[in-house]
Specification:
With 144 residues, the chain is mainly alpha-helical. The protein has one domain (26-137). 71% of the residues lie in helices and 0% in strands. The chain contains eight helices and no strands. The protein has helices at 4-17, 26-49, 54-78, 82-91, 94-97, 105-114, 118-124, 130-137. The longest helix has 25 residues, at 54-78. The chain starts with a helix and ends in a 7-residue tail after the last helix.
Length: 144
């Protein structure tokens, strides 16, 4: 006969890892949308202005993809549709957050000049931690 603690742990794990029973509220949806918008504004200058530093760009892209993955996984558990999640992944990719490749160089320089602290934020990794904020908004515990 299984130990009571084992059964309790199994039930708790199933509860934490199963999809949410209720749809997210409109307030939660709005808060998550604001969080994504703030993250986009925080990360976009790093992807645009830092694109010429290839090793840094690759590293920061990998961090962003991890943030996206965790945030989208939490949203999936909370009831966002596959269509909504796919759209969000596409429109918030590192390439989508960058200025278009056709942007004149003078406009690129002007943009990066206006983003005075992008390099400091990138060097200190002082960028919005989207996944934790989304999980908090949705009332989820952060899982590794």
């Amino acid at each position: 006969m299984p130990c009571t603690h084992t059964l309790l742990l199994a039930a708790l794990s199933a509860l934490l890892l199963s999809p949410a029973l209720a749809e997210p509220t409109q307030d939660q949806r709005n808060a998550v949308a604001r969080s994504w918008s703030e993250a986009e504004a925080d990360w976009a200058p790093v992807f645009t202005c830092g694109a010429t530093i290839s090793k840094s760009d690759a590293y920061l892209r990998s961090l962003w993809v991890k943030e996206q993955d965790k945030a989208l996984a939490a949203m999936k558990l909370a009831g966002w549709s596959a269509t909504e999640l796919a759209y969000l992944r596409q429109t918030t990719s590192a390439d989508a957050l960058r200025l278009p490749g056709s942007t004149p160089f003078s406009n690129l320089i002007a943009y990066c000049t206006r983003q005075k602290n992008w390099i400091h934020k990138a060097n200190r990794l002082d960028l919005k931690i989207l996944s934790s904020e989304v999980e908090q908004i949705l009332g989820m515990y952060s899982l590794p």
